[in-house]
Design goal:
GMP Synthetase, Chain A, domain 3, three-stranded mixed beta sheet, GTPase activity, 297 residues, alpha/beta, 10 helices, binds magnesium ion, small ribosomal subunit rRNA binding, P-loop_NTPase, GTP binding, binds guanosine-5'-triphosphate
Length: 297
């Protein structure tokens, strides 16, 4: 192993915030790669998504998390467990808020979420949507609210302010060895991202309960010589009526999901794939402890 610089730093950074604040967009901007799926709808992220930033003198292990909410069913309870465990593992916390949101400041009990008083950096995201004059009063408001390490206005979407975020994080990381080899960007297997990209396309295309009622599982992921990889994915829905909607007239809807997801998957994997989708009913999977466990939650 190459020798590391004496002042090498490494640590875990939890990205937390309300649903839709831009946590996943931020993760992707920090890593400069699309790792975490994004949509206009809240509760897009359901699990922890780990992404690693490697530089010569430091390694930052980011954990993107589901948006903080009051759980109403078992899946949401699991989602909040991911938030809690990311906070437990963290050396540093990035709290991201939507600066363009109507409600400020956030009614979030940070003392309860962060009992061991780990350093928290506040990011005011989506500043591309507000006027410059609105930023300072917001910073003042949040300063009254909690003793943040620092407050940084950013636009995750436009990758504006991201370098400053990196600088402010590194200063606060402990000295120590890297957790992962330098060429690794995540700890999830490829099939995790394949399932997520399919789910993203469902979130983009469907409304109301459908996105929330669907989950994706990869059944077969076969690398083949001289031919595209073969991927068979099952999309679970909660009720029979939803199955028809997902498939669409003459299979139109499912075909569109497949085409859009395939493009995204191919870009991520850097190779061609043949993607086959099927839809199955998995009654009330969101509320069943056993079914959720089987789906890997
Ligand atoms: N205008 C603007 N939109 C943004 C910015 N950052 C994120 N968004 C949008 O906000 C929406 C939610 O972004 P996500 O990154 O999915 O938010 P999230 O916090 O991960 O959401 P959940 O996973 O559902 O909790 C998407 O439509 C993004 O394009 C930003 O800086 N400016
Ligand atoms: Mg997200």
């Amino acid at each position: 192993m190459e020798t590391l610089p004496e002042n090498y730093r490494s640590g875990y950074v939890a990205i937390i915030g309300f649903p839709n604040a831009g946590k996943s967009t931020l993760l992707n901007a920090l890593l400069n790669i699309k790792l975490s799926i994004i949509s206009k709808k809240p509760q897009t992220t359901r699990r922890r998504v780990l992404g690693i930033l490697n530089r010569d003198t430091y390694q930052i292990v980011f954990v993107d998390t589901p948006g903080i909410l009051r759980p109403r069913y078992t899946l949401q309870k699991k989602m909040m467990e991911y938030v809690r465990s990311a906070l437990n593992d963290a050396d540093l916390i990035l709290l991201i808020v939507d600066a363009a949101a109507k409600r400020h400041p956030i009614d979030l009990d940070l003392n309860q979420l962060n009992p061991s008083k780990k350093p928290v950096i506040l990011l005011l995201n989506k500043i591309d949507l507000i006027t410059k004059g609105d930023v300072l009063p917001l910073i003042e408001k949040y300063n009254d609210f909690y003793s943040f390490e620092t407050i940084i206005p950013i636009s995750a979407l436009q990758a504006d302010g991201i370098e400053r975020v990196e600088e402010e994080m590194v200063k606060r990381l402990p000295l120590g060895y890297p957790f992962y080899p330098p060429d690794v960007i995540t700890d999830h297997p490829e099939r995790f991202f394949v399932a997520e990209f399919i789910r993203e396309k469902i979130f983009e295309r469907f409304y109301q309960e459908i996105p929330y009622s669907t989950e994706v599982e990869i059944e077969i992921f076969e690398e083949r010589e001289k031919r595209p990889d073969y991927i068979l994915a099952t999309i679970y829905v909660e009720r029979k009526s939803q199955k028809g909607m997902l498939i669409g007239k003459g299979g139109e809807a499912i075909k569109a999901i497949g085409t859009a997801a395939r493009k995204e998957i191919e870009e991520f994997l850097g190779r061609r794939v043949f993607l086959e989708l099927r839809v199955k009913v998995n009654e009330d999977w969101r509320r069943s402890e056993v079914k959720l466990r089987r789906l890997g939650f």
